[in-house]
Write a structure and sequence with these properties.
elongated; 5 strands; alpha+beta; 25% strand; 41% helix; 5-stranded antiparallel β-sheet
Length: 159
């Protein structure tokens, strides 16, 4: 029987991977406090680990969404893996639209919620601009020739 070569433990490998992954990863305890934030999450929030670990997750959510998101995070919805759109406060308090992918995990008898923060702010901004541009083109095309519509659309894009 072949024996596996000695090497780092699975735990050490997972820890090392989470530390270098370019996606923000956070872990919260059942009281809703951050217990771990990887370097990408610290960059996303623009704060050092000392300022994040121990703080309440809800403080990272924009005030207008805190009640609703707080209810969601405390509900049975987080008992299973899932995702949720949330507006979080990123670096310098900037509002960032994110998809929070979450999954519960029990570790050493403690229930934890692991979150992967996918910043979709730029994608959504581009999509909104494309929709506005399409609506603008549609309204221009109603009473104009194709050439006039394309000229007006090109001017709109330039602006």
């Amino acid at each position: 029987m072949k024996q596996a070569p000695a090497g780092p433990s699975i735990d050490a490998i997972v820890r090392a991977l989470v530390e270098v992954v370019p996606t923000p990863v956070v872990v919260a305890d059942d009281a809703g406090h951050y217990v771990y934030v990887n370097p990408a999450a610290r960059a996303f929030f623009g704060r050092p680990v000392e300022e994040l670990v121990g703080t309440e997750v809800i403080d990272s959510i924009v005030p207008r969404e805190r009640e609703e998101v707080g209810s969601y995070l405390c509900s049975t919805a987080t008992a299973e893996p899932g995702r949720r759109s949330i507006t979080m406060l990123g670096r310098d308090g900037q509002e960032r639209e994110v998809l929070l992918h979450h999954t519960p995990m029990e570790l050493e008898g403690k229930l934890l919620l692991i979150g992967i923060v996918e910043d979709v702010t730029e994608n959504r901004r581009v999509r909104r601009e494309a929709v506005a541009l399409a609506q603008s083109a549609a309204s221009l095309a109603i009473n104009r020739s194709l050439d006039a519509t394309l000229d007006a659309l090109a001017q709109s894009v330039v602006e």
